[in-house]
Amino acid sequence: MDHNGDPSVPRASFRKFLEQLSGAGKAIGVLTSGGDAQGMNAAVRAVVRMGIYTGAKVYFIYEGYQGMVDGGNNIVEANWESVSSILQVGGTIIGSARCKAFRTREGRLKAAHNLVQLGITNLCVIGGDGSLTGANIFRGEWSTLLEELARDGKISKEDVQKYGHLNIVGMVGSIDNDFCGTDMTIGTDSALHRIIEVVDAIMTTAQSHQRTFVLEVMGRHCGYLALVSALACGADWVFLPESPPEEGWQETMCFKLSENRARKKRLNIIIVSEGAIDTQNKPITSEQIRELVVKQLGYDTRVTILGHVQRGGTPSAFDRILASRMGVEAVVALLQATPETPACVVSLNGNQAVRLPLMECVQMTQGVQKAMDERRFSNAVQLRGRSFEGNLNIYKQLAIKKPDSQITKSGFNVAVINVGAPAAGMNAAVRSAVRVGISEGHKMFAIYDGFEGFAKGQIKEIGWSDVGGWTGQGGSILGTKRILPAKYLEDIAAQMRTHSINALLIIGGFEGYLGLLELSAARGKHEEFCVPMVMVPATVSNNVPGSDFSIGADTALNTITDTCDRIKQSASGTKRRVFIIETMGGYCGYLANMGALAAGADAAYIFEEPFDIRDLQSNVEHLTEKMKTCIQRGLVIRNENCNENYTTDFIYQLYSEEGKGVFDCRKNVLGHMQQGGAPSPFDRNFGTKISARAMQWITGKLKEAQGKGRKFVNDDSVCVLGICQRNLLFQPVAELKEKTDFEHRIPKEQWWLKLRPLMKILAKYKASYEVSDMSQLEHVHTGPEEPAAI
């Protein structure tokens, strides 16, 4: 057992890891360039710490390329403490500037000279496509720049040999999410948080006065923010640069707004991307839209331009975790690079970090702009990637109700039920299911209060406008209970007969999964259960087998992260304090582990990784060492069920005793605040998309069997729909049984455990990080399977 670092890593494997990935004798420069984005600091922190951890020297390059050209005290060596307390800060602490000089060869010559003097031949560039293209040009010219410097006598011949090659790895920091090849760029999720906060606030005032609001969001060339925020708040209309409205949109839009008012909707929200255009490439401005609505409909209409608010504020939990993963992966990529490796970008695909050739992504990104300039709009939407196209189609299906005359009635009745504990985003999922179902011709029924309500007959038909405004509501409007169906099977079957229910959609947590198993097992006795049944995972614990993510976990994670930020701040006045924070999750350590990564905790105790008193001792010693530096506070996160004897109180008392005279302790149990609150943009979106997909599956199953009069008895008609690595998959519950630990209510294998070492490395423990599975460059992916991007 190695008490110097993390006890779970024997010395030998750690040594092997460092040999594989030694940064000794290497120097890495990190810079942020172009527009700033929340989460850039988390990326900088990860690059610095991972670099130092592998034995490399890491240098801050201040003010982007400008600092590289100017040199001097713009390029400074960083140490472990230089990136302390920046995880929760928006923007970038090393500054960013647009730089004209770097666009010229003379500028790049100066930059090369400044880097060679410090021996920096590895660059990590965090910025948009312009910054990354610049880096690639620099890399291409590097050897000729060095030869020129040697000719001018500025560097020696040996230097030309020694520093003959420049490695470049990019990370995309851009709130617009306008970079092809990655599902999410650093900053996008946080920008969506800012937009949704504003929309939620505006909705309450608009409701009071029956107003129409035109909201302008950022995105000069990319409509991602506008589209996703429209999807997340159920906007009446959205204007995007990639998908301009058809000719005569003015009448269509005004008709749609007046129709919504006639349905008793007291407000209208119109979202406009700042780069919105019509089919002739002429700009559509917010002011134009306002004038149109006032002139045609006479509604009280206001314009709100969000502007730079979207770039500001603290990064969301998603962005912190994304940036930390990308930063570590970028260092690994730099240390593994050879002169033959092309410059790469570290990006996200589903929930996996991948490396893509930088120029391939840049060319694709520029291809979208070209398609828009040439008015090939459907092409532009396709090039943006499958998740963009999916978002657009779902938005259209949910926002615009077709007239009844245009909907072919299917003759099927589909019921929706919430099961388990409430989770933020459940209502968005119900709304989406109801509207997709109606647009596919089904009659939709809502079941109130879980399986108990089902047995008592609390079932009502639910219409299109009944679910209006549900996306932003927390908790469960239908009501939800943890009660399982086993003891009510007779009654539930009778209710399904009475209401002739042809399919069932369950939105819930582990109880929903158990309920689905029980209904499936009862098919032999009750033929009413021989219908398609699908479950969409919704629980803060994220412990449902068959999915890497569940609705509600992101909202809970943001609550934990925000609380930890505040708690850390409270310690800034009183030095030398350690906080012990207890999170929910049952036996699943997802919230504790990811919360620790997002909040920059020193340790996270979880059930999945057993620990003993020696580990607790080693953590106390680690914190005692930390108190000798300038970072005089600690944060320890404990999952509520990580160990029955090492309770939160026990750990608090142990730390208090062992830390006497060095630090004092406080404890905090976060409790049910993790289940409440308005859903985060991620959960609204995820709930909306995954639930729409579940309804499409139900429609497909019902249509297949139509007229054949056969019952659904196969395993593949009872499924859980979830994200697995990079794809959306329907998995039969019969197959998932093998993968479940029923005693502890968790899946036997959990993807996020791979991120454990990441948290430890960033907290200065010795740990081995798996580097093998993604050292290969991939190509920008456009395959046939379903993308899992949110």
UniProtKB/TrEMBL annotation:
In which broad location class does this protein mainly occur, judging by the first location in its UniProt entry?
Answer: cytoplasm
Localisation per UniProt entry: Cytoplasm
> Which residues take part in binding ATP?
G35, R98, C99, G128, D129, G130, S131
Region described as C-terminal regulatory PFK domain 2: 413-790
* Residues of the Phosphofructokinase domain: 28-333, 413-698
**Which metal ions or organic cofactors does this protein require, according to UniProt?**
Mg(2+)
GO cellular component terms listed in the entry, alphabetical order: 6-phosphofructokinase complex; membrane
Q: Which PROSITE patterns match?
A: PHOSPHOFRUCTOKINASE
Recorded GO molecular functions are: 6-phosphofructokinase activity; AMP binding; ATP binding; fructose-6-phosphate binding; identical protein binding; metal ion binding; monosaccharide binding
Q: How is its activity regulated?
A: Allosterically activated by ADP, AMP, or fructose 2,6-bisphosphate, and allosterically inhibited by ATP or citrate.
| BP GO terms, sorted | canonical glycolysis; fructose 1,6-bisphosphate metabolic process; fructose 6-phosphate metabolic process
Tell me the keywords, alphabetical order: Acetylation, Allosteric enzyme, ATP-binding, Cytoplasm, Glycolysis, Glycoprotein, Kinase, Magnesium, Metal-binding, Nucleotide-binding, Phosphoprotein, Transferase
What is the reaction catalyzed? beta-D-fructose 6-phosphate + ATP = beta-D-fructose 1,6-bisphosphate + ADP + H(+)
Database matches in Pfam families: PFK
Region: N-terminal catalytic PFK domain 1; residue ranges are 1-400
Q: In which pathway does it act?
A: Carbohydrate degradation; glycolysis; D-glyceraldehyde 3-phosphate and glycerone phosphate from D-glucose: step 3/4
Which protein family is it in? Belongs to the phosphofructokinase type A (PFKA) family. ATP-dependent PFK group I subfamily. Eukaryotic two domain clade 'E' sub-subfamily.
What name does the UniProt record give this protein?
ATP-dependent 6-phosphofructokinase
